[in-house]
From TrEMBL:
NCBIfam families: PRK06187.1, PRK08316.1. This is Acyl-CoA synthetase. InterPro entries: AMP-bd_C, AMP-bd_C_sf, AMP-binding_CS, AMP-dep_synth/lig_dom, ANL_N_sf, ATP-dep_AMP-bd_enzyme. The keyword Iron does not apply.
């Protein structure tokens, strides 16, 4: 054997384990099994892998190459999943964009990410064109998909033609496990979102944690109703199902009637919803009329599940085991999991670190704190982001000391269970969406007559947290709740707009002048109760 050597490239290719490889391998294991159901479309694993290959070939034929970025603004659909895996197959980075953002917010993401391809649902064509007009990106691909029957606009081609049209060869691109495959934009304390770089290694490590600690298997039949532009639905559930060989039922959105009908019709076994959607399901007037006996696994995240809702779920769906997934986009996104047996004994808790995660609590100097003491939650894990796109300073800050600093405050008990007690970054999680308080504050400061603003979340029976703004007008200026809400409507996506607005004379502050939001939250915690009377 002397003198015979394998080249590093051939060894790397044989050992490759990327996101796109997962689907290809599932198609070999389960070629005839149903992989994806979307309305009247049903794909076996072999068929879905084939359409992913067609999309990858089309993107390559349009001039996209490894490292290019394709932005996607769309509701849930089989095309969304196929484009995500198709882009990964040729090393193109997917940039999913929240379809509730306005043109200015989308324009920032297009410009910051350097996207040179844009694919949109037909219903978002107008806002997408507004964003493109504001930034003028050099797009190699501009394509439209959807079910509204709208014809492609000027310069836009139809994704529907990619499935039925010419078949293009797919190059065997050298994609390494730690090459970026996604840029996920997430809001923090900054007024602008950050681009979180995720690799195949991070995502697949997270898929394994979800599958093992989340009790998932190839026998699952799952409804995907929450937005796939989120890591939660896309990477805790849809992608894991494709990895394991489970069946995915895709819905456009979390309509309670449609979810319940789908569970009954498709004999669904598995469902993820944030607490707000579980509450909507339980409140459905015909909930008890549906046959939900097939449902055996339930998942929630984005916010703690109220204890009274947990008890109601146990009573009305006694066969369903529940898991709470806690994390953030930078963790791809899972960090800790609260198991079914701990739901009531640790209600409101975030559980213990997932399989591939190490979590601890530290003080302001980065030193580990003992059980029972509150500090910042930090993690070590292959789930973690490669860093923030084009932001080395923020990356260095977040990874200080060789741990990822979550920005959340928490406490771990003697048994290793985590409870999140506050958000160091003042993040508001409303209806499953992240809202940066500073972004809302800066938008409200643009209104003439506003002297000071504090934005925070208060408890709400449906939204879990409601965006709340307390305003101090400038001397001699009169501002009303209607003035402020109208101003917010013009500048913020709907879910970021304050549900409650309070006009007051002064904000509580400490001696150094910092606004005491904890006091404000306590002072105005009653708002949702008063408004519901």
């Amino acid at each position: 054997m002397r003198g015979i050597f394998a080249s590093p490239d051939t060894v790397a290719r044989a050992r490759r384990h990327t996101v796109s490889d997962l689907l290809h391998r599932s198609a070999q294991r389960y070629p005839g099994k149903t992989a994806v159901v979307d309305g009247d479309r049903r794909f076996t694993f072999a068929e879905f892998n084939q359409v992913v290959t067609r999309f990858a070939g089309t993107l390559h034929a349009r001039g996209l190459a490894k490292g290019d970025r394709v932005a996607l603004i769309a509701r849930n659909s089989w095309e969304f999943g196929a484009l995500a895996f198709g882009a990964a197959r040729i090393g193109v980075v997917l940039v999913p964009i929240n379809f509730m953002l306005n043109a200015d917010e989308i324009a920032f993401i297009l410009e910051h990410s350097g996207a040179n391809a844009l694919i949109v649902d037909d219903e978002f064509l107008a806002v997408a064109e507004g964003a493109v007009a504001a930034t003028g990106p050099d797009l190699k691909v501009a394509a439209i998909m959807g079910r509204g029957g709208a014809a492609p606009g000027l310069g836009w081609e139809s994704v529907a033609e990619w499935e039925a049209g010419e078949v293009y060869a797919v190059p065997d691109v050298a994609v390494a496990d730690d090459d970026p495959v996604r840029i996920m934009y997430t809001s923090g304390t900054e007024s602008r979102p950050k681009g979180v770089l995720l690799s195949s290694r991070a995502l697949i490590s997270q898929y394994v944690s979800c599958a093992i600690d989340g009790g998932m298997s190839h026998d699952d039949v799952e409804v995907h109703a929450l937005p796939m532009y989120h890591c939660a639905q896309m990477d805790c559930f849809f992608s894991v199902d494709l990895y394991l060989g489970a069946t995915s039922i895709i819905l456009r959105g979390p309509d309670p009637t449609q979810i319940l009908e789908t569970i009954q019709r498709e004999r669904v076994t598995k469902l993820f919803c944030p607490p707000t959607v579980w509450i909507s399901l339980l409140g459905h007037p015909r909930f008890d009329e549906y046959d939900l006996s097939s449902l055996s696994k339930g998942y929630y995240g984005a916010a703690p599940m109220p204890a009274e809702v947990l008890r109601e779920l146990n009573t009305r769906l006694p066969q369903v085991r529940l898991w709470n997934f806690y994390g953030q986009t930078e963790m791809s996104p899972i960090a800790t999991i609260l198991a079914p047996e701990d739901q009531l004994t640790h209600a409101g808790g975030a559980g213990r670190p997932a399989l591939n995660v190490e979590t601890r609590i530290v003080d302001d100097t980065g030193q580990a704190l003992p059980p029972g003491e509150v500090g910042e939650i930090v993690h070590r894990s292959p789930h973690l982001t490669l860093g923030y796109y084009n932001d080395p300073a923020k990356t260095a800050e977040s990874f200080a000391g060789g741990w990822f600093h979550s920005g959340d405050l928490g406490v771990i008990d003697e048994d290793g269970y985590l409870t999140v007690v506050d958000r160091k970054k003042d993040m508001i999680k409303t209806g499953g969406e992240n809202v940066a308080s500073r972004e809302v504050e800066e938008a409200l400061y643009l209104l003439d007559g506003v002297a000071e603003v504090a934005v925070f979340g208060v408890s709400h029976p449906y939204w879990i947290e409601a965006v709340t703004a307390v305003i101090v007008p400038k001397s001699g200026v009169t501002l009303t709740e209607d003035d402020l809400k109208a101003h917010a409507r013009d500048r913020l996506a709907g879910y970021k707009q304050p549900k409650y607005v309070v006009v007051t004379d002064a904000l509580p502050k400490n001696p150094s002048g910092k606004i005491l939001k904890r006091q404000l939250r306590e002072r105005y915690e009653h708002l949702s109760k008063e408004m519901s009377k």
